[in-house]
């Protein structure tokens, strides 16, 4: 492994250690951010095609972690313009796009990764979970009426079981290059 690869692995390991430390040091009775922490978090504007129930589930996941989320429903045809406006690399696209402070958040990024991003404040464009990995926040369950490619149906129209997939949260640097920020 080259030195750049080793540095990248060390950075991911440091983030995991920090995330574990935060979880261990948080009192058990605080399941969501306290009112003071919530006031300090930037609001989230979620741009999502309508209807997308997995997008709504992801917004609920963020709310459970103390974020205030506003959903702006868009036509599917308008989503590429929003992604270009926020400089989301096309290779990392998903269904919905959000703006959190100065960062974009593309796809089903776990709230913990966003909280860590806001704490570290790297010189970056944002975070992305490309595609629609099963088991990512908002993708743990699904509803068969979603019309935006977030539901898997069998031949009889019945929902299939979605299995948890391993996925990466990617950090998009200010230069547009991406690297693994967290592994799930």
List its traits.
184 residues, alpha/beta
Describe this structure in words.
A seven-stranded mixed beta sheet has the order 2-1-3-4-5-6-7, sandwiched between helices. The chain has five helices and seven strands. Mean pLDDT is 79; it is low at 26-38 and 142-154. The protein has 184 residues and is α/β, with parallel strands linked by helices. The chain has helices at 3-25, 35-40, 53-64, 79-85, 111-120, and strands spanning 44-49, 69-74, 97-100, 103-107, 124-129, 168-173, 178-183.
Structural class: alpha/beta
* Tertiary shape: globular
The end-to-end distance, rounded to whole angstroms, is 22 Å
Largest sheet: 7 strands, mixed
What value does the Rg take, in angstroms? 17 Å
Strand order of the largest sheet: 2-1-3-4-5-6-7
The strand count comes to: 7
Mean pLDDT: 79
Order of H and E elements: HHEHEHEEHEEE
- State which percent range the strand residues make up: 15-25%
